[in-house]
């Protein structure tokens, strides 16, 4: 049993705690957060974990084997390095870091310390993504020509302007960091490294000073093209589609919507699925209901305990950050930017 310390108890930190209630491989033994309120104290008591005074105290706790970071993106690099220094395994929420250099520094610290470092791209674990990956590798879609995704929610319409998620330094290009990086990770997983990108991003309806409409073109090193659209001021939705010379497959679902129930945020991310071959009838089915946050955290715990490696290689973690780096540069320059 891996005893974890949760770092950050906002709405998503609480969701991660709830995801592993009753798990036989990982449990939350302690936690810390920047602002402790009576509601946070009650949540910790109800879930049977102690609150540490700060991150340093949590790392010094001998009863804690690992930390789960549900903190602002800009803090991740330093927190991973500190955890590695304390020989604590790390599950880090996405996005990993805000720069490629930080991602490399964090990975190098984990390698040097011999700890397990995992990244919370939980959609990788859904059975439908596994099926899609297997279909591509088996050649069932033929030559992959294009991959595209659209991710939307309305959170920018109600977010507190003082919240860190409303800060352009933390969340450049609107929905790219909170949502779009999931799709980028999926594209890297299924189609390999990204070579270059082009992007446009602007504000249309958000009451805060933040982009709410972002569209991105990508070209993979293996030759296929990609598109990603993210919007933060419309209804929640998620679609991911791969087109090949033998047909296309589309996965649909929802995004992590603030205000939705914890159960919905964890289990309802995938819904309708459709495969349309170039000849014959389409196949349509409903995705399995699965708590992919729990699956991801349990995969991390098993890796930390010496089991199978967490199925997200370090080079792909770093490359994902390099891709977002290039997208941000492209939106600023108005030019095609190479992924460094």
Instruction: Quote the CATH topology of the largest domain.
Output: Dihydrodipicolinate Reductase, domain 2
Which parts are unreliable, with pLDDT below 50 for 5 consecutive residues or more?
none
Approximate shape? globular
Total count of helical runs of at least 4 residues? 10
What is Rg?
Answer: 20 Å
Q: Would you identify the CATH H-level superfamily of the largest domain?
A: Dihydrodipicolinate Reductase, domain 2
* SSE ordering: EHEHEHEHEHEHEHEEEEEHEEHHE
**Helix/strand-derived class?**
alpha/beta
Overall average residue pLDDT: 95
CATH class of the largest domain: Alpha Beta
Straight-line N-to-C gap: 39 Å
Strand line-up across the major sheet: 14-13-12-11-7-10-9-8-15
How much of the sequence is in beta strands? 25-35%
Helix content: 25-40%
Account of the 3D structure:
The chain has two domains: 2-120, NAD(P)-binding Rossmann-like Domain (Rossmann fold, 3-Layer(aba) Sandwich), CATH 3.40.50.720; 123-294 and 321-338, Dihydrodipicolinate Reductase, domain 2 (2-Layer Sandwich). The mean pLDDT is 95. It has helices at 11-19, 38-46, 55-60, 76-85, 100-113, 127-138, 176-191, 262-267, 292-304, 314-333, and strands spanning 2-7, 26-32, 50-51, 66-69, 89-92, 117-119, 144-152, 194-202, 213-220, 225-231, 237-244, 247-253, 272-277, 283-286, 337-338. The strands form two sheets. The chain has a nine-stranded mixed beta sheet with strand order 14-13-12-11-7-10-9-8-15. Strands 3-2-1-4-5-6 form a six-stranded parallel beta sheet, with helices on both faces. With 340 residues, the protein is α/β, with parallel strands linked by helices.
């Amino acid at each position: 049993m891996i005893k974890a310390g949760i770092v950050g108890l906002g709405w998503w930190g609480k969701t991660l705690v709830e995801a592993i209630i009753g798990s036989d491989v990982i449990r939350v033994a302690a936690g810390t957060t920047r602002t402790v309120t009576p509601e946070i104290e009650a949540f910790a008591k109800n879930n049977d974990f102690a609150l540490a005074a700060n991150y340093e105290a949590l790392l010094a706790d001998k009863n804690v084997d690992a930390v789960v970071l549900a903190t602002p993106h800009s803090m991740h690099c330093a927190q991973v390095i500190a955890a590695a220094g304390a020989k604590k395994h790390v599950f880090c929420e996405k996005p990993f870091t805000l720069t490629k250099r930080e991602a490399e520094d964090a990975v190098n610290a984990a390698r040097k310390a011999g700890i397990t470092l995992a990244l919370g791209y939980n959609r990788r674990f859904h059975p439908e993504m596994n099926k899609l990956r297997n279909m591509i590798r088996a050649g069932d879609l033929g030559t992959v020509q294009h991959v595209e995704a659209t991710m939307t929610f309305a959170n920018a319409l109600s977010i507190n302007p003082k919240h860190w998620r409303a800060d352009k330094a933390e969340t450049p290009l609107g929905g790219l960091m909170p949502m779009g990086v999931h799709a980028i990770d999926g594209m890297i997983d299924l189609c390999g490294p990204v070579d270059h990108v082009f992007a446009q991003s602007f504000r249309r309806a958000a009451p805060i000073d933040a982009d709410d409409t972002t569209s991105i073109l990508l070209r993979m090193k293996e030759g296929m093209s990609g598109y990603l659209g993210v919007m933060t001021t419309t209804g929640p939705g998620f679609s991911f589609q791969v087109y090949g010379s033998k047909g296309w497959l589309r996965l649909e679902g929802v995004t992590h919507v603030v205000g939705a129930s914890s159960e919905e945020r964890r289990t309802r991310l995938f819904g309708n699925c459709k495969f349309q071959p170039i000849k014959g009838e389409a196949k349509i089915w409903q995705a399995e209901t699965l708590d992919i946050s729990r699956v991801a955290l349990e995969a991390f715990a098993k890796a930390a305990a010496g089991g199978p490696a967490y199925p997200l290689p370090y080079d792909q973690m770093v490359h994902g950050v390099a891709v977002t780096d290039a997208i941000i540069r492209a939106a600023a320059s108005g030019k095609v930017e190479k992924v460094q």
